[in-house]
Amino acid sequence: MAENPFFSPSTLPYKLPDFAEIREEHYLPAFERGMTDQLREVEAIAGDPGPATFANTVEALERSGQILKRTATVFMSIASSDATDGIREIETEILPKLTKHGDAIHLNRALYERIKQVATEDPEEAWLLEKYRVDFVRAGADLSEADQERLKELNEELTKVATTFSQNLLRASTGSALVVEDVKELDGLSESAIKAIEKDGTYVLPLLNFTNQPALAELTDRQTRRKLYELSVNRAPENFDLAVKLATLRAERAALLGYPTHAAYSVADQTAKTTDAVEEMLGKLVGPAVANARREAELLSEQAGFPIEAWDWSFYAEKVRKARYDFDGAELRPYFELDRVLRDGVFHAAGELYGITFADRDDLAGYHPDVRVFEVFNADGSQLGLFVFDPYARPTKRGGAWMNNLVDQSHLFGELPVVMNNLNVTKPAEGPTLLTFDEVNTAFHEFGHALHGLFSDVRFPRVSGTEVPRDFVEYPSQVNEMWATWPSVLANFARHHETGEPVPAELLEKMKAAEKFNQGFATVEYLAAALLDWAWHKLAPGETVEDAEAFEAAALERAGIAFDLVRTRYRTNYFAHIFSSGTGGYSAGYYSYIWSEVLDAESVEWFKENDGLKRGNGDHFRSALLSVGGSMDVMAAFRNFRGRDPRIEPLLERRGLLT
Ligand SMILES: [Zn+2]
Q1: What's the rounded Cα separation, in Å, for the pair 275 and 185?
Q2: What is the spatial distance between Cα 415 and Cα 68, in angstroms, rounded to a whole number?
Q3: How many angstroms does the Cα of residue 439 sit away from the middle of ligand 1?
Q4: How far is the CA of 404 from the centre of ligand 1 (A)?
Q5: Is 520 exposed, middle or buried (0-12, 13-18, 19+ CB in 10 A)?
Q6: 476-493: b or e for each residue (b if 16 or more CB lie within 10 Å)?
Q7: Edge to edge, what strands does the sheet with 178-180 contain?
Q8: Which tens digits make up the pLDDT trace of 136-188?
Q9: What is the pTM of this model?
Q10: Residues near 343 by Cβ (< 8 Å), separated by ≥ 6?
Q11: β-strands 418-425, 383-392 pairing
């Protein structure tokens, strides 16, 4: 075997991982060596006979574990985007070992003692030092030996159960797929959509990872809709028990760490800080949102001519859109060709705001032929980083869309960022890739995260780019969505893929009017998920749950969000955000999306007040907020940008919740 490519830094531009050289058999040896090396480095730091300084302790920790970091970064990215059976086996084996490895560092008493002795006057160093101290305390550094032993067991068990949960889910997307023999049952789907799911005379429609499958908007056969919907909400039933296990283990873990619930533990280092703050916020939204959704339901039943069921919602929502707003989302698709959306939309908007430019780097390869690499430059021509783009769905890719870093920007290592975006667009059997408006919006959203990573201008990798509190991280990406419908941006990218004609202004007007419709549905399905996550993580230590489905129903009822026609966006059995990672993920954190939307709505207002899409505005957002990453208090960064504390009113107005 040639030298393991993870053993030395990549020699490619920007240290882009050399995917062409990486084989599955490289991961385990690289993980093993990476962990061994880092433990040796940590021992040396902890055992240093001299006085503890920032340089020989915190900075030395930042420098440690380079092989492990390179390996884990690539592996986690591949495990999300292209998880073959081999990758899943490695995942099952390595995740518990990584959890153990993290504990071995955080529960090293000599090391923790030295961190406590470090003092520094430099504000950026002081901020990082405090982060380290909090990380160690939250990982159990202050506990007794016996409690630490129990904590290690809990962490390992949590990791194992969560990995099984997420693998069950990946299998269920095809395992619980809708299988149809008679093509008539698929009436309403486009010819190309039907063609894409045909296999030897059978039609297999895989499940996407949320309740309301997009095909429900198009399928004319009510029975097919019902079948698809029921497959969706009942998938991976074995995950119910795993969710109970995860929630009870987390409650025990929180108690060990001195918190009444996992929710309290989880928000303590977020911008929300307390469970009361989260509940107060969600509480303001529930009543008006449910009232909106009920009004919408009446309209839909009127349109249908009978009382609709949950599986009818999207279908009749489309009908109402056509009837009331004369708007058909499908009419827009020919104007949203993927490559054009990316270059003339997403990149164009970033160019106008920040002066950055993009160059194709077809000489640089990803891990799959569909992955594309772009080099990004500042307005003055200096190098900014690489942007890696993986737009298409595949059976080995998890659901949803996300951004991740392949290389973190830091001055410590003199490294520029390599960031990537994953989408889950269906690749057409032939011809151009035409997007829905939702997919266009998602492309802008994910690129907002990418900009947060690309503009990072900090000393230390631990606080680079998107390494900010979870209930803050969605904010910059949400702001970037505003440019998807900004008139000059839209005019630039929305052109017919065959004729090059711009999208008719009239169609856009209708789209804007129709956008306000169905907000009740969107808000309720989201809030239900946030409150379900919350209920699971408000379990008291020792509390048991006999029946997960009954628990789910009771929790939604109690929160005032139970509504048969609009179920939660994720039920317990497929709530990957909160159950697919043992100790991390979005557990007790799904509220974050609407929490950060408060900041988003405030910022959109600021851009509008200041003349919108122009360099000065982008530069201010970049320097005050995006470039500082997590290297300072992010709410102070927000105030530096906005000039005051955030208010909730712009969000309420946007969501139609002002009463
Ligand atoms: Zn996001």
Answers
A1: 47
A2: 17
A3: 13
A4: 10
A5: buried
A6: bbbbbbbbbbbeebbebb
A7: 178-180, 202-205, 198-199
A8: 999 999 999 999 999 999 999 999 999 999 989 988 988 899 999 999 999 99
A9: 0.92
A10: 358, 493
A11: parallel
Looking up tokens 């769905």 gives 393
Q: Tally the residues of the chain.
A: 659
User: Is 336's pLDDT higher than 90?
Assistant: yes
- Which amino acid type is present at position 55? A
- For 214, 338, 432, 490, the CA distances from 333, given in Å and listed in that order, are 15, 10, 11, 13
**DSSP, residue by residue, 4-48:** PTTSS---SGGG---TTT--HHHHHHHHHHHHHHHHHHHHHHHT-
Segment 575-587 mean pLDDT: 88
**Backbone φ, ψ for residue 567 (5° rounding):** -80, 165
Encode pLDDT of 76-129 as tens digits.
999 999 999 999 999 999 999 999 999 999 999 999 999 999 999 999 999 999
**Span from the CA of 474 to the centroid of ligand 1 (angstroms):** 5
Question: Per 3-state DSSP, what percentage of the chain is helix, strand, and coil (rounded to 5)?
Answer: 60, 10, 35
Query: Cα of 470 to ligand 1 centre, how many Å?
Result: 10
Q: What is the spatial distance between Cα 652 and Cα 87, in angstroms, rounded to a whole number?
A: 44
Q: What angle do CA 557, 559, 565 make, to 5 degrees?
A: 50
Protein residues within 5 Å, CB atom, of ion ligand 1: 474, 477
Q: Among the options 318, 446, 474, 481, which is catalytic?
A: 446
Say how many Å lie between the CA of residue 478 and the centre of ligand 1: 7
Provide the 10 A C-beta neighbour count for residue 183. Answer: 13
446 has catalytic annotation? yes
Q: State in Å: Cα 200 to ligand 1 middle.
A: 38
As a whole number of angstroms, the distance between CA 337 and CA 432 comes to 7
